[in-house]
């Protein structure tokens, strides 16, 4: 029963495919999985939009959407219908083909990333040996779409937004990759299924997730920062900062093309959260050994939604950085720290089992973090102030 | 703070020939003002700002005022010596007769500056300047080089009253659009006919708007070009 | 004509011109018209920017989109009839506008105000100051990209204050409450109790604001040493209000003029040392705290008695010829009314000294050399309302 | 300084997130069409004309003195004065408005007409759901639409109405005494108008 629940989707697929001739089975299986992903994640997108609006509302002491359907649950559908029926405006001077292609390229590139994510035990579309590399290759091509959008719109705000987006995404791509390298160094594999398998062990009922190691925690934080920047979410949402650049690179998009950008942004958030939980949070493995009976895909998706909630939480709290501060942060703080983390990971790898490596690695990371943070804030003259009063 | 007379004396000592004149204010506010000659305005302003005892470093308010030409009817007491017979004796008696005279007071545009001191926390000291008339000699020196706060306010006075400030770094219209011709705050400004098209209970406005609309349509029919 | 053909024709006419301009044949500058419909111009306001990359090299503010010629209207109607129009100047703080106008007219005619009315005026003005500062900080952080959370907290508290205003004056924003020689209606004991209750909740609200924002590293990084205004320039340019005090100039009209009965209350004037956005933010926070102490004192000491001077006239109000300039410390700065009477029922000249407009004098000076993103912030930290700028 | 500020802020939003489910202080939203707040006595929306007796036309307190028309800041009131006089509620002959229109699309709810009215004839209503699809006809209220009974006035502004009634009664007593005196003295003229009440608020 437990296995049946766990493998429900796999078995379902195999059962459905079984009706077809053997020669078609392989192709049909892949097709079925692709269709599932293409349907499932937009559905999740609708849920996440609802969750975001509701969560933001509650954080701001508002009710959030509550008119369409029970608890406003049908709001995303209403939004979808609205954006489908809206006029599709293409600016007169826009580069029309590129303007049209940009959202398509974005969504396609983002969807490709899902191919290698293990969403449960045996639930991965393509179990590639170099899955991580494939993922990053696909992730990097979203920048192209963003720049296409900004450039083709012939709008000054779009152009500024696209320039910001490209600078920001390339910078943080480096950090994203380097913080994942630490995981690869320990697990010894680029295959995402192997990385999950490596974390799916338990000691005293607790899992061997990489986040529960000093280098893993540091790596995860750096990964989270880079992921936020990579998906253009607050506090790194400069490319579309509505108070400065109206809507950044998608200022000139309306109707369904805008909806595609919106979808692309959320899908990127899902896929990057999925990758993050795969790398550091044990993917589909349960958080306690006594919970392993719960189907693996439930764990994957609950971790994904949890990280989505953290994204929403940050968006509800934090103001955004400025472009130069963002770049400084990437190149002068996050990147050096990630490089250091790589060295600490190597140290961890070669110090062998035992409590010493915990102490040494944690100490190095904490001391360097504190010193670097203090120095960089001091250099930027950022500090709390005292105020004087006149009577 | 010094009294008006003392300030007047100080200004005259610092900028001889400034032609300072105290304009009394009969209202209970008691805010009397100083009228200065435009030719010496910059010197006076610099003195007021830099003088240690006055230190009027903060120009709060710049205002334009439009004084139309107006016919003043004033009662003037005229004293004349009249020979009268009082108690059967002919005497020269001083007699005061009230005569009603009419004269036309020429109109002008006036600019009023309210000065305060942020360092010494006193004020207001009110400066006034007059243009020669309301039509062609409407130039006054700009005090923006002395107090930056006059920048937008003098632009506003230029825009709404038509006072041309010499020496203003960027004298453009502030509130009305650049193509606008008139100066709407002048007392003799007339609203354009198309001010309000909407039906209101006030038939006068409506009638005027309708007339304007009809005229405009007729014009368009004739093909003589756009209305406005 | 087909869309494509139309497009082609327009492109040949020069629509396709790249959005770059040449200046002196040296640098290529990007000209951006920020506004009049830009998300963060607080209404309809335009800034013509010339950008070198993202750095501002020129900024020209353009006003007048909301111009109603308030002063001209006022010259055509009676003194009393201008009172509701003053509500519409700075529509966030109608009560201080009322007070400034009432004060100017009282100076013009030498009208006395009963003690109770003075207390009510102080209470309402300080409530207005708190809600203005709270929402202006909210708008500022909104422009920093915090998705409106502080703004919503500010609006939550503002709602309570507006409820008080509505109960007393009959309107939430367009209060039209003060009259020459007093106030329109008396406060009930129940209203005073409700006001005390609201005041008791305010320190907690300010604490919440401070927890959320004051030590936030991103906010400090964005605000500190940005948009610096030197005190000499601030005084010379006629800057008033929290902006002037953030530059370190001790000039609070409540302390300087002692208008009303402000000399009876014990409160301090917070001063900033740097004159940057963070100082403006903090000065507003600290002024809110001082306002709470004033409110506590006023609500404790409020005496009984009439609220209108017996000699005050509602109908047939004709001041003797003369002029008066009355000013108060409105939340945004010095709000002055300059009135000239020719003895008639209407003012001969009615002039508003709008703090919002004059505080914008130094906008270009503060913005030169900073980023587009900073322009938005600096503009937000000036705290303007377009209803007052354009009148 | 090492991210505590950010964490403090996140804690604050989390507190509000949870608090919004439990605390009415935090969740102040009123879901308007379904949920309504109690009517506020001081609320003012648009003016109406008070009448005293059963018949609205005869009982209007307004005597078409046109002070409100003159004082109205946006000039949204339009009055036509009658040529003849009709007895008012007390039975005294008065002018009356043959036309009294208020354009509520122009009215800015400032209450100045109420303050300047010497006859307590115009008061502020608190009905605000007046949206209509007829901008010009539907928002121009004539005298029939504006007329509301004194009981209605008592219903929406009880304290203010009681004060007004007391004052009117006092004036009536005074006027009666005066007219009696006048009759006694055979001064035929009588009081043409009630003396305007002393200036001072509403």
Q: Which value, in Å, is the CA radius of gyration of chain D?
A: 24 Å
- Give me the strand/helix succession of chain B: HEEHEEEEEEHEH
N→C terminal distance of chain B: 54 Å
Mean pLDDT of chain D: 79
3D structure, described in words:
The complex is a heterotetramer of chains A (391), B (228), C (391) and D (202). Chain A has one domain. Chain A is 68% helix and 2% strand. Chain A has 14 helices and 3 strands. The mean pLDDT of chain A is 83. Chain C is built from 16 helices and 10 strands. In chain C, β3 (46-52) and β4 (55-62) form a beta hairpin. Chain C is globular and about 70 Å long. Mean pLDDT of chain C is 85; it is low at 15-21. With 202 residues, chain D is an alpha+beta fold. Chain D has helices spanning 4-22, 56-59, 67-71, 112-116, 143-146, 150-156, 158-184, and strands at 47-51, 77-81, 86-87, 93-94, 97-103, 122-124, 140-141, 147-149. In chain D, the strands form 3 sheets. Chain D has a 3-stranded mixed beta sheet. In chain D, strands 2-5-7 form a 3-stranded antiparallel beta sheet. In chain D, a hairpin with a 5-residue loop joins β3 and β4 (93-94). Chain D is elongated. β3 of chain A pairs antiparallel with β7 (269-271) of chain C, so a sheet runs across the interface.
Describe the secondary structure blueprint for this structure.
The complex is a heterotetramer of chains A (about 400), B (about 230), C (about 400) and D (about 200).
Chain B lengths: L3 H11 L6 E3 L9 E3 L5 H10 L7 E10 L2 E17 L2 E17 L2 E9 L8 E6 L8 E3 L8 H12 L2 E3 L36 H20 L6
Chain C lengths: L2 H13 L5 E3 L3 E8 L11 E7 L2 E8 L7 H7 L6 H5 L6 H16 L5 H29 L5 H21 L8 E2 L2 E2 L5 H25 L3 H7 L7 H6 L5 H5 L6 H4 L12 E3 L5 H25 L20 E9 L2 E9 L7 E5 L1 H5 L3 H5 L4 H11 L3 H5 L1
Antiparallel strand pairs in C: 1-2, 2-3, 3-4, 5-6, 8-9, 9-10
Chain D lengths: L3 H19 L24 E5 L4 H4 L7 H5 L5 E5 L4 E2 L5 E2 L2 E7 L8 H5 L5 E3 L15 E2 L1 H4 E3 H7 L1 H27 L18
Parallel strand pairs in D: 1-8
Antiparallel strand pairs in D: 1-6, 2-5, 3-4, 5-7
Compose a concise summary of this entry.
The complex is a heterotetramer of chains A (391), B (228), C (391) and D (202). With 228 residues, chain B is α/β, with parallel strands linked by helices.
Can you tag this structure with a few keywords?
heterotetramer; C: 391 residues; 4-stranded antiparallel beta sheet; 3-stranded antiparallel beta sheet; 16 helices; 14% strand; D: 202 residues; alpha+beta; 3-stranded mixed beta sheet; 7 helices; elongated
């Amino acid at each position: 029963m437990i296995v049946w629940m766990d493998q429900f989707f796999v078995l379902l697929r195999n059962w459905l495919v079984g009706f077809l001739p053997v020669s078609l089975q392989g192709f049909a299986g892949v097709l079925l999985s692709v269709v599932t992903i293409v349907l499932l994640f937009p559905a999740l997108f609708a849920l996440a939009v609802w969750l975001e609006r509701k969560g933001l509302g509650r954080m701001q002491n508002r009710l959030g959407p509550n008119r369409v359907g029970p608890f406003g649950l049908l709001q995303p559908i209403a939004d979808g219908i609205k954006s489908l029926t809206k006029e599709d405006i293409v600016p007169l001077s826009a580069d029309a083909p590129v303007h049209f292609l940009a959202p398509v390229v974005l969504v396609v590139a983002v969807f490709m990333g899902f191919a290698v994510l293990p969403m449960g035990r045996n639930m991965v579309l393509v179990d590639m040996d170099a899955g991580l590399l494939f993922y990053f290759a696909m992730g990097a091509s979203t920048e192209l779409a963003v720049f296409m959008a900004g450039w083709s719109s012939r709008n000054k705000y779009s152009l500024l937004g696209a320039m910001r987006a490209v600078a920001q995404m390339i910078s943080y791509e480096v950090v994203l990759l380097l913080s994942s390298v630490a995981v690869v160094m320990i697990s010894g594999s680029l295959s995402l299924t192997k990385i999950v398998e490596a974390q799916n062990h338990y000691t005293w009922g607790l899992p061997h997730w990489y986040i529960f190691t000093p280098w893993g925690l540091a790596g995860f934080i750096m990964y989270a920062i880079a992921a936020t920047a990579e998906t253009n979410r607050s506090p790194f949402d400069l490319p579309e900062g509505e108070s400065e650049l109206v809507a950044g690179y998608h200022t000139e998009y309306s109707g369904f093309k805008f909806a595609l950008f919106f979808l692309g942004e959320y899908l990127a958030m899902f896929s990057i959260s999925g990758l993050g939980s795969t790398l550091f949070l044990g993917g589909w493995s349960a958080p306690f050994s006594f919970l392993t009976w719960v189907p693996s895909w439930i764990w994957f998706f609950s971790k994904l939604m949890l990280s989505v909630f953290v994204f929403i939480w940050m968006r509800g709290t934090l103001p955004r950085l400025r472009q130069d501060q963002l770049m400084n942060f990437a190149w002068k703080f996050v990147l050096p720290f990630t490089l250091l983390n790589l060295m600490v990971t190597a140290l961890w790898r070669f110090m062998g089992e035992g409590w010493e490596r915990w102490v040494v690695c944690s100490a190095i990371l904490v001391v360097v973090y504190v010193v670097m943070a203090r120095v960089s804030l001091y250099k930027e003259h950022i500090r709390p102030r005292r105020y004087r009063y006149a009577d | 703070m010094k009294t008006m007379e003392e300030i007047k004396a100080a200004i005259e000592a610092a900028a001889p020939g400034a032609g300072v004149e105290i304009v009394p204010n009969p209202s209970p506010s008691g805010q009397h003002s100083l009228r200065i000659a435009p030719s010496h305005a910059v010197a006076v302003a610099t003195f007021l700002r830099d003088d240690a005892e006055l230190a009027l470093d903060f120009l709060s308010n710049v205002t334009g005022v439009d004084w139309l030409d107006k016919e003043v009817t004033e009662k003037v007491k005229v004293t004349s010596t009249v020979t009268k017979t009082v108690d059967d004796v002919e005497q020269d008696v001083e007699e005061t007769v009230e005569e009603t005279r009419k004269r036309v007071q020429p109109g002008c545009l006036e600019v009023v500056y309210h000065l305060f001191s942020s360092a010494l926390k006193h004020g207001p000291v009110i400066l006034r300047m007059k243009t020669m008339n309301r039509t062609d000699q409407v130039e006054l020196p700009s005090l923006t080089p002395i107090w930056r706060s006059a920048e937008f306010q003098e632009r506003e006075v230029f825009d709404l009253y038509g006072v041309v400030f010499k020496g203003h770094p960027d004298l453009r219209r502030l509130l009305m659009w650049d193509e606008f011709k008139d100066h709407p705050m002048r007392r003799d400004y007339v609203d354009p006919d198309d001010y309000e098209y909407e039906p209101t209970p006030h038939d006068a406005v409506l009638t005027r708007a309708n007339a304007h609309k009809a005229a405009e349509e007729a014009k368009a029919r004739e093909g003589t070009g756009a209305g406005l | 004509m087909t869309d494509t053909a139309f497009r082609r024709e327009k492109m040949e006419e020069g629509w396709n011109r790249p959005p770059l301009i040449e200046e002196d044949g040296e640098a290529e500058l990007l000209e951006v018209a920020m506004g009049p419909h830009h998300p963060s111009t607080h209404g309809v306001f335009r800034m013509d920017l010339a950008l070198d990359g993202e750095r501002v090299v020129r900024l020209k503010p353009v006003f007048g989109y909301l111009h109603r010629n308030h002063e001209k209207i006022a010259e055509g109607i009676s003194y009393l009839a201008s009172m509701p129009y003053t509500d519409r100047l700075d529509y966030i703080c109608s009560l201080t506008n009322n007070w400034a106008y009432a004060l100017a007219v009282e100076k013009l005619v030498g009208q006395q105000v009963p003690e109770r009315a003075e207390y009510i005026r102080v209470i309402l003005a300080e409530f207005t100051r708190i809600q203005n500062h709270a929402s202006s900080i909210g708008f500022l952080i909104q422009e920093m990209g915090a998705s409106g959370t502080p703004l919503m907290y500010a609006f939550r508290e503002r709602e309570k204050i507006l409820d008080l205003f509505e109960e007393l004056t009959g309107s939430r924003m367009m209060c039209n409450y003060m009259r020459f020689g007093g106030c329109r209606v008396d406060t009930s004991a129940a209203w005073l109790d409700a006001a005390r209750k609201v005041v008791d909740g305010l320190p907690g609200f300010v604490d919440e604001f401070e927890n959320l924002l004051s030590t936030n590293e991103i906010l400090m990084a964005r605000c500190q040493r940005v948009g610096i205004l030197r005190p000499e320039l601030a005084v010379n340019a006629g800057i008033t209000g929290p902006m002037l005090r953030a530059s370190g100039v001790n000039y609070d009209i409540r302390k300087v003029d002692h208008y009303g009965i402000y000399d009876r209350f014990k409160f301090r004037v917070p001063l900033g040392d740097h004159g940057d956005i963070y100082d403006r933010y903090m000065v507003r926070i600290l002024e809110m705290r001082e306002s709470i102490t004033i409110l506590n004192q006023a609500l404790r000491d409020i005496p009984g008695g009439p609220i209108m001077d017996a000699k005050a006239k509602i109908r047939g109000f004709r001041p003797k010829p003369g002029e008066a300039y009355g000013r108060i410390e409105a939340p945004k700065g010095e709000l002055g009314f300059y009135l000239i009477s020719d003895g008639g029922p209407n003012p001969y000249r009615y002039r508003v000294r709008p703090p919002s407009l004059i505080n914008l004098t130094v906008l270009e000076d503060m913005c030169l050399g900073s980023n587009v993103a900073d322009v938005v912030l600096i503009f937000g930290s000036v705290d303007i309302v377009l209803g007052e700028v354009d009148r | 300084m090492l991210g505590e500020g950010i964490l403090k802020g996140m804690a604050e939003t989390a507190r509000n997130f949870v608090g919004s489910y439990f605390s009415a202080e935090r969740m102040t939203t009123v879901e308007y069409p379904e949920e309504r707040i109690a009517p506020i006595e001081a609320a003012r929306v648009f003016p109406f004309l008070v009448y005293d007796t059963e018949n609205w036309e005869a009982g209007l307190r307004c005597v078409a003195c046109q002070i409100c028309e003159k004082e109205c800041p946006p000039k949204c009131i339009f009055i036509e004065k009658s040529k003849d006089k009709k007895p008012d509620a007390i039975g005294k002959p008065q002018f009356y408005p043959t036309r009294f229109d208020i354009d509520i699309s122009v009215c800015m709810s400032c209450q100045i007409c109420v303050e300047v009215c010497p006859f307590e004839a115009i008061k502020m209503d608190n009905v605000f759901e007046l949206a209509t699809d007829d901008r010009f006809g539907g928002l121009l209220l004539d005298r029939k639409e504006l007329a509301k009974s004194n009981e209605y006035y008592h219903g929406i502004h009880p304290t203010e109405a009681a004060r007004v009634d007391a004052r009117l009664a006092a004036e009536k007593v005074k006027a009666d005494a005066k007219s009696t005196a006048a009759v006694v003295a055979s001064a035929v003229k009588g009081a043409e108008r009630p003396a305007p009440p002393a200036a001072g608020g509403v």
